[in-house]
Specification:
21 helices, alpha+beta, 487 residues, 45% helix, 3-stranded antiparallel β-sheet
C-alpha cells in the first residue's frame, strides 16, 4: 500500500516541550504524522528530506508516513532471500527442466551478488553446490516429501556456506545501481573455466535475472527494473540451423543400419532414431511414444489380407503372413517425457511426463508416417516388445529411455557408417539433427510450410526462420541473373 497524496506543513515550536520543542507535521493519504526534534536544524533537515521525496514523485507509506525508499533501506531484503521467494513462486507451475534452468541461473547470480570483503567466505564451488542442491531448491519443504527442517537435512559444510550467504548477500535495493547490474550481466558471459559462455546460455540466464528483478518490482522492493536502464546487449543467438548437420536419406538409412548392426541392445533404439527422422519427432516425444498411439497398417502379399495393425498380426491356418507390404501409418502424439533429474520433479523421478511442447496439456498432434517407419516399429514390437505401460522405448533396466543411452549408440553408429571426414564434421552429430533433416527433406520436397509446421509442432514463422538455410531451389536462376548483370 502506498500513496502520493502528501501534505507537509512548516516547522513549528511547542512551548510546552523543553527537551524536543521543534515539530514537523505532515499527512499521507489524509493521515497525519509528526516528529519532534531538539533543534530547529534537525527539524529542518528532516522536513527537507520529506519535501525532496514528495517533489521527486516518490510514493509514501500510509502506515508509517515515510517514503517507501526509506522503509526499504531500513529493512532491506537480500538478493538471496528474494531469489528463494522467486523460486517458490515459480516452482508449482514450472516444468522440471524450467525449474532446473532457473536455479542454475540464480546460483550464478547469487554468488556474484555478495560482499567481497565479508570474512569467512567459503570457496565459490562450495557456495554454488550449496545453492544448487539446497538453498534454491524448495521441493522438499514445499511438497512435504521430507518433513524435516532445512538445518537437519543440509550437510554441515553446505549449511555453513548458506549461513554465510545470508549475511553476505547484497540487498536488492543496491541493484538500483547500473554499475551493479552491469557487473551481473557481464558475469553471465563467462564460464567457470574462464571461456566465453554460449550465447543461448547468456540469453537464458539474463531472462531469469530480468524476471527475478521484475518480481522485486511486483513486491515493491524496487521501483523499476534496473536492467532497462543499462545499455547492454546479449550475444546474438543463432536463429537458423547449420545446414551441415542435415543428413541425406541415404546417409540416414546407413546410420540406422549401423545402429542395428551394433547388437541387440543397440537395436532397441533403431526405431527410436527412425521416429526422429521419418516422423520429425523430438527425442522427448519419441521416448514417450506408446503402443496405443500408433496405427501401423499393411497388406499381406501372400494372401492379400489387409491389416489395420500389423504389430498384432499372427500367422493364420492358411498363411504365415511372412511377406508384408507396409503402408502409410499414423502416430497420435499426446505427451513428452523429458529428463530433468530427480531433484526437480514432483515425484522424485528422473523424467517428467508432460503434454506436448508449447501446447495445452490435453492437446494432441497427429503425424502421418511412411511405410519405412511402420516397418521399423513393427520390427521393434516383434523383437523387443513394449513396456507394461505401452512405451516402445525403455532404458537398460526398463525405466524411461535416457539421453546417455541413445547418445552412446549414436556416436558408435556415426563412427561405423560415416567416413572419417564426415564423422569429424557436424553431419548428424546429435540425434536431434535427424529432426532437422526431416524438416529440410519435407520442405525441399515441396510440402507446404503450414503442413510441415503442423507435423513438427512448430509455428510457421519459427519453421521458416529456423530452416531458412536448408531450403533449396532457385539458385541456378538467381546465379544466371547475376551472371547476366556482370557480363
Amino acid at each position: 500500500m502506498k500513496s502520493y497524496e502528501v501534505q507537509i506543513w512548516e516547522i513549528g515550536k511547542r512551548a510546552d516541550r523543553k527537551a524536543r520543542p521543534w515539530r514537523v507535521r505532515w499527512a499521507v493519504g489524509g493521515r497525519r504524522f509528526e516528529e519532534m526534534f531538539r533543534t530547529k536544524a534537525l527539524a529542518h533537515s528532516f522536513r527537507a528530506e520529506l519535501v525532496q521525496a514528495a517533489n521527486a514523485g516518490e510514493p509514501f507509506d500510509p502506515a508509517t508516513g515515510r517514503p517507501v525508499s526509506e522503509a526499504r533501506t531500513k529493512n532491506p531484503t537480500t538478493w538471496y532471500a528474494h531469489s528463494r521467494a522467486y523460486v517458490e513462486m515459480k516452482w508449482p507451475r514450472a516444468a522440471a527442466k524450467t525449474r532446473r534452468s532457473i536455479v542454475e541461473a540464480l546460483t550464478s547470480i547469487t554468488v556474484t551478488l555478495t560482499r567481497p570483503t565479508k570474512r569467512g567466505r567459503p570457496d565459490d564451488a562450495l557456495l554454488r553446490e550449496a545453492l544448487y542442491l539446497y538453498g534454491l531448491n524448495p521441493r522438499r519443504y514445499l511438497y512435504g516429501l521430507n518433513p524435516r527442517r532445512w538445518s537437519e537435512e543440509i550437510p554441515s559444510e553446505h549449511a555453513a556456506a548458506l549461513a554465510w550467504l545470508e549475511t553476505a548477500s547484497l540487498p536488492v535495493v543496491e541493484l538500483d545501481s547500473p554499475a551493479m547490474v552491469r557487473r551481473v550481466l557481464d558475469s553471465l558471459c563467462v564460464r567457470l573455466d574462464g571461456k566465453p559462455a554460449a550465447a543461448s546460455t547468456v540469453q537464458r540466464k539474463r531472462a531469469t535475472f530480468y524476471n527475478t528483478l521484475g518480481y522485486a518490482v511486483e513486491l515493491e522492493l524496487i521501483d523499476s527494473n534496473p536492467v532497462d536502464r543499462v545499455q547492454w546487449t546479449a550475444p546474438e543467438v543463432a536463429q537458423s540451423i547449420d545446414r551441415r548437420v542435415v543428413a541425406s536419406p541415404a546417409q540416414v538409412a546407413a546410420l540406422l543400419e549401423a545402429v542395428k548392426s551394433l547388437g541387440k541392445r543397440a537395436d532397441k533404439v533403431t526405431a527410436f532414431f527412425g521416429c526422429l527422422y521419418y516422423a520429425g519427432m523430438r527425442p522427448s516425444e519419441a521416448a514417450d511414444l506408446r503402443r496405443d498411439d500408433c496405427d501401423l497398417p499393411g497388406r499381406c502379399v501372400g494372401c492379400g489380407a489387409d491389416f489395420d495393425d500389423l504389430a498384432a498380426v499372427k500367422p493364420s491356418g492358411t498363411c504365415d503372413h511372412e511377406k508384408i507390404e507396409y503402408r502409410w501409418g499414423r502416430l497420435v502424439l499426446a505427451g513428452t517425457s523429458p529428463r530433468a533429474g530427480s531433484r526437480w520433479t514432483d515425484d522424485g523421478g528422473s523424467h517428467e511426463r508432460r503434454g506436448l511442447k508449447h501446447r495445452a496439456r490435453q492437446e494432441t498432434r497427429t503425424v502421418p508416417i511412411p511405410p519405412r517407419l511402420v516397418e521399423l516399429l513393427c520390427a521393434h514390437v516383434e523383437n523387443h516388445g513394449v513396456s507394461p505401460d505401452g512405451r516402445f522405448f525403455r532404458g537398460l533396466h526398463g525405466g524411461p529411455l535416457s539421453e546417455s543411452v541413445y547418445d552412446r549408440w549414436w556416436k558408435l553408429a556415426r563412427e561405423k557408417a560415416l567416413t572419417e571426414a564426415q564423422a569429424a564434421s557436424p553431419l548428424a552429430r546429435r540425434p536431434y539433427d535427424l529432426r532437422h533433416a526431416a524438416a529440410s527433406l519435407w520442405l525441399n520436397a515441396g510440402v507446404p510450410p503450414t503442413e510441415v509446421a503442423r507435423r513438427l509442432g512448430h509455428g510457421v514463422a519459427v519453421l521458416l526462420r529456423v530452416y531458412a538455410n536448408c531450403i533449396d531451389g532457385g539458385d541456378d536462376t538467381m546465379n544466371d541473373k547475376i551472371g547476366d548483370a556482370l557480363a
